[in-house]
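Quarterly update from the structural biology core.
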Amino acid sequence: MSNTPSEVTPPNDEMPVVFLAHGAPPLLDDAGWMSELAEWAKRMPRPRSVLMLSAHWEAKPAELAATTTVPLVYDFYNFPQRYYETKYPAPGAPALASRVRDVLDAKGIAHGDAPTRGLDHGAFIPLLAMYPAADVPVLQLSLPGLDPATLASFGRALAPLADEGVLVVGSGFLTHNMRSVGQPTPAWAVEFDAWTAETFAKRDIDALVDFRARAPAAALAHPRHEHFAPSIVSAAAAVERGRNDVTFPITGFWNDWSFTRRSVQFA
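Predicted structure, tokenized:
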């Protein structure tokens, strides 16, 4: 891979906000899903940089990861060796890190730095599909815990970045119950997926924050909701910035299991 900027459309200042289902290492072998992510990226304006919030990194207070190119975090186990040899040498984003500190400070949100932490698989796997040349600067930012109201406030604080050429990406799964792996798609997953689609379309942040009480089968869809958390951040940032056109670039269930591939673009 090359870090040389691609000869493509120049970066754009006004960016959508997105939430994507990031799969797992086997996504790299799923040509169809990789193609869907690649085509989605081509349809969007080209970002100046990417801010990634992955289900796989929580820190309280929030932490900013490395602003230089450092080794990836292979935070998965018992997979074939080739997945641990994957590289994604995206440029660091020190200017974005400085701006993130500014917007968090403006809202009185505490934060810290993790200068040696690389991108985890919730970040680098979808980026390999979307920006395979690894030529867009990337900064990963941790989730500040899992409290839904805090996540919504966090998203609203990050909202100005969407008008500054930054693609704010929440990366997780809208249904995530590991006990259902290998089983046919259950009714509860279909119901929860449909509820999320309707709720995003309405841009109803209050309902997302209160999803445990309002969504059908919430406890089955998310025994622990770290994979849902990034969607709250993305949706709150989008609504705060007036991104009112909601589309679902990728839908369906992974391998016909309980994991919905639904991904969301707020433009």
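The chain has one domain: 17-266.
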